[in-house]
């Protein structure tokens, strides 16, 4: 035992960080799927979309939800990052190890880190661009997607859904709430379904001309 | 099958001669019926290269000495039949453990440390009376203890673990499985708090990122996913309890 490690030791804190990662992860998973369904209301029509948005505004859901989600993303990112291979040497060890092992779950962690970083950057620009054109309306969303944000949304939907589903899988495995091999296929179906829904929503926004002020 | 010519690509490095850099050396050998990797390595050493270093004792998957990376994956050489392998077989020593030379690693020091850290013996205040009838244990508990106890300390779970590869102080599945074994045992009177200080940390169960290579590659097929989750749940409960009392 060495002095600095002895003094810095705090098992309770480390355990709570793990639980915090779990809680924020589950919360963000729930939010992402809710968000995907909410914006997909554009498939039903402009009115449905605008009504949803107005209702969330009316009940202050947006004003409570958005700051909470931003906080959760930051906390989850910071807490989850503590285990990632940030030192160059650790990164090399991880990549070499994964290549030797050819083990899907091990590679999935690399995917998790990469998609996590993509989400961190793209979610920040996404939230920013939504907030500066507040309130959320079909017309502003369509203008954004038609005005050059399309490809970044494709990437964000893919990264966020893959990150969320692999993350959920990891949680369920770590706490042993599922039979690992049986459950994987359901998660793959769910990922394909949610990404499909996201892309459909995106295409509707991209090809629909929505004049400003229509609501 | 029997007349295949196998190519073995073997990791060679001796820490005593650091001027010779680590390299892969190739040997060719004709396959024989029922050949295991253990048999193949012995033939390589006897017939081609007496300097080749590797460990074995029991050749029956009991001692755990011959664990190595076989085509990149940890496994026991004695339990691996060449008939299940492609024509080209790459063998490397297990990572994480101290390299003795070529395929030989020192798992002994690591596992001794494990036994010392986990205090791997029954802690009880009861005085043993050899004349009294042995206390009964219910069957499910005995089975659960036996499941954990089947660990042969080969180190495959540690070599397969990404975290253990990256961080030398991470305990890994063998460690946590050992803790689980004593936590299940009703004869061990240690309170959970005592275990918490040892494994309720990022070096312990909370350092595990759940990649489950240990569970997939354990030669004894110990259900490590369940064992790790058992320790994780107990430790999480403990952390939450501490919160209330604090």
Question: Helix/strand-derived class of chain A?
Answer: mainly alpha
Radius of gyration of chain B: 21 Å
Q: Report the span from N to C terminus of chain B.
A: 67 Å
CATH class of chain A: Mainly Alpha
What does this structure look like?
The complex is a heterodimer of chains A (215) and B (246). The model of chain A has no long low-confidence stretch (mean pLDDT 90). In chain A, helix 2 (11-39) crosses helix 7 (138-174). Chain A has 215 residues and is mainly alpha-helical. Chain A has one domain (16-207): 3 helical TM bundles of succinate and fumarate reductases. Chain A contains 8 helices and no strands. Chain A has helices spanning 3-8, 11-39, 46-58, 61-81, 88-101, 104-132, 138-174, 180-207. Helices cover 37% and strands 15% of the residues of chain B. Chain B has helices spanning 37-48, 108-117, 139-149, 156-160, 162-166, 172-184, 192-199, 213-217, 224-245, and strands at 5-12, 23-30, 67-70, 73-76, 88-92, 98-101, 104-106. In chain B, a hairpin with a 2-residue loop joins strand 6 and strand 7 (104-106). In chain B, helix 6 crosses helix 9 and helix 7 crosses helix 9 (224-245). The model of chain B has no long low-confidence stretch (mean pLDDT 93). Chain A binds chain B through residues 9, 11-12, 14-19, 82-83, 85, 90, 93-94, 97-103, 105-106, 108-109, 170, 173-176, 180, and chain B through 69, 72-73, 92, 95, 160, 162-163, 165-167, 196-197, 200-202, 204, 206-213, 215-217, 225-226, 228-230, 232-233, 235-236, 238-240, 242-243, 246.
In short:
The complex is a heterodimer of chains A (215) and B (246). With 215 residues, chain A is mostly helical. In chain A, 82% of the residues lie in helices and 0% in strands.
């Amino acid at each position: 035992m060495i002095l600095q490690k002895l003094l810095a030791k705090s098992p309770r804190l480390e355990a709570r960080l793990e639980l915090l990662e779990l809680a924020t992860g589950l919360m963000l998973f729930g939010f992402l799927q809710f968000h995907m369904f909410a914006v997909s209301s554009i498939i039903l029509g402009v009115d449905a979309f605008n009504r949803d948005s107005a209702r969330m505004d009316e009940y202050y859901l947006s004003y409570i939800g958005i700051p909470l989600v931003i906080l959760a993303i930051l906390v989850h990112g910071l807490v989850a990052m503590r285990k990632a291979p940030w030192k160059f040497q650790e990164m090399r060890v991880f990549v070499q190890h994964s290549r030797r092992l050819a083990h899907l779950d091990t590679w999935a962690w690399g995917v998790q880190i990469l998609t996590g970083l993509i989400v961190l950057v793209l979610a920040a620009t996404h939230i920013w661009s939504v907030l500066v054109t507040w309130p959320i309306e079909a017309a502003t969303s369509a203008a954004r997607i038609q005005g050059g944000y399309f490809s970044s949304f494709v990437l964000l939907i893919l990264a966020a859904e893959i990150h969320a589903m692999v993350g959920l899988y990891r949680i369920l495995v770590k706490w042993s709430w599922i039979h690992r091999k049986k459950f994987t296929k359901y998660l793959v179906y769910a990922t394909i379904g949610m990404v499909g829904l996201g892309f459909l929503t995106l295409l509707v926004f991209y090809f629909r001309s929505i004049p400003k002020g229509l609501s | 099958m029997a007349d295949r010519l196998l190519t073995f690509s073997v990791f060679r490095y001796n820490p005593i001669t650091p001027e010779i850099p680590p390299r892969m050396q190739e040997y060719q050998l004709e396959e024989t019926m029922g050949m295991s990797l253990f048999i193949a390595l012995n033939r390589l050493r006897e017939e081609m290269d007496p300097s080749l270093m590797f460990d074995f004792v029991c050749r029956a998957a009991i001692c755990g000495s011959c664990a190595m990376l076989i085509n990149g994956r940890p496994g026991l050489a004695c339990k691996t039949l060449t008939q299940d392998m492609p024509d080209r077989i790459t063998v490397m020593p297990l990572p994480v453990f101290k390299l003795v030379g070529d395929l030989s690693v020192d798992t002994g020091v690591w596992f001794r440390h494990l036994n010392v850290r986990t205090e791997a013996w029954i802690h009880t205040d009861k005085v043993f009376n050899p004349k009294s009838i042995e206390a009964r244990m219910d069957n499910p508990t005995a089975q659960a203890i036996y499941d954990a106890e089947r660990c042969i300390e080969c180190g495959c779970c540690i070599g397969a673990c990404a975290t253990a590869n990256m961080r030398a102080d991470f305990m890994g599945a063998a460690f946590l499985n050992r803790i689980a074994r004593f936590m299940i045992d009703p004869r061990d009177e240690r309170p959970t708090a005592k275990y918490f200080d040892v494994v309720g940390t990022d070096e312990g169960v909370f350092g595990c990122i759940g990649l489950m290579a240990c569970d997939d590659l354990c030669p004894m097929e110990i259900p490590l996913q369940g064992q790790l989750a058992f320790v994780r749940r107990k430790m999480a409960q403990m952390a939450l309890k501490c919160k209330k009392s604090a």
